[in-house]
Amino acid sequence: MADQSGKTAWITGASSGIGEALAKAFVADGGSAILSGRRVPELERVAKETGAPERCSILPFDTEDFASLDPLVKQAIALHGKVDVLVNNAGISQRSLAIDTEFSVYERIVSVDLMAPIALTQALLPHLLSNGSGQLIMISSVAGKAGVPLRTAYCAAKHGLIGYSDALRSEVAGQGVKVLVVAPGSVRTNVSRNALNADGTVRGTSDAAIENGIDPDEVAQIIWRAVDDGKREIVIAEGMEANIPVLRAQNPEQLFDMVEAMVANGYAQKLAPKSES
């Protein structure tokens, strides 16, 4: 990872998982970090654990409070004089069949996973363009490359984030601003515990795939290396998950057969909330 001295990264969802790991790695290489999320004690813990809390600023906010973003962006810029990198990492997942899922769940997930990163990016974009440089990192998902069961809302939002990012990249590439889309597979985070059930309640339990997933610190190193290398999109996944984007592009019929077989073989029942099992 390159020396990040003199650079500031603003990271949402920085209190745990990939966001926490990205913050620690960036600060370890000399950078400053603006840590955002809703859980201030956890953000303070992350700042302390970077080993350089003096280069970390805590900026809590609700990503869905779109009306507050303009003053928030001004506050973020004032903290270190500029923002060089924005990591749109905050998000929420889903574990429910479409037929059972209340529409409010779709509204919430699309708001958090798609509209919120778009809103924050749009609010910060004039600053990046005026500087003539900047890096946007959009944390999508393998589920943003292909539809997978029990995640219809999540897939819709993450697909949309990739579409927005691809279009934006083409517009700002000649103005010094780079866009990296990251599509992780299973990573050892709280994503499954925090996922929404069909009625909007929090699932509260994890999946075996997530528990056996890639370490967030490894994911962070891969992401920062991709930034150094000027990559525009990367997939970070193992096994079958790594093959999903390839199949979607090269042999979609085989992929459709595969995910349909997952459902036919009881995938939904295996991931059902405990209260329903």
Describe the structure.
- With 277 residues, this protein is α/β, with parallel strands linked by helices.
- The protein has a single domain, classed as NAD(P)-binding Rossmann-like Domain (Rossmann fold, 3-Layer(aba) Sandwich), CATH 3.40.50.720.
- It is built from 10 helices and 7 strands.
- It has a 7-stranded parallel β-sheet, with helices on both faces.
- Strand 2, helix 2 and strand 3 form a beta-alpha-beta unit.
- Helix 1 packs across helix 7 and helix 8 crosses helix 9.
- The relative contact order is 0.13.
CATH superfamily: NAD(P)-binding Rossmann-like Domain
Could you estimate the helical fraction of the residues in percent? Answer: 40-55%
Question: Can you tell me the CATH class?
Answer: Alpha Beta
**Known CATH architecture:** 3-Layer(aba) Sandwich
Main β-sheet, spatial strand arrangement: 3-2-1-4-5-6-7
DSSP strand count: 7
Describe the structure concisely.
The protein has a single domain (8-276), classed as Rossmann fold (3-Layer(aba) Sandwich).
SSE layout and pairings?
Elements: E1 8-11, H1 17-28, E2 32-35, H2 40-49, E3 56-58, H3 69-80, E4 85-88, H4 103-131, E5 134-139, H5 152-172, E6 177-184, H6 208-211, H7 216-228, E7 233-236, H8 239-250, H9 252-264, H10 267-270
Parallel strand pairs: 1-2, 1-4, 2-3, 4-5, 5-6, 6-7
Helix pairs in contact: 1-7, 4-5, 8-9
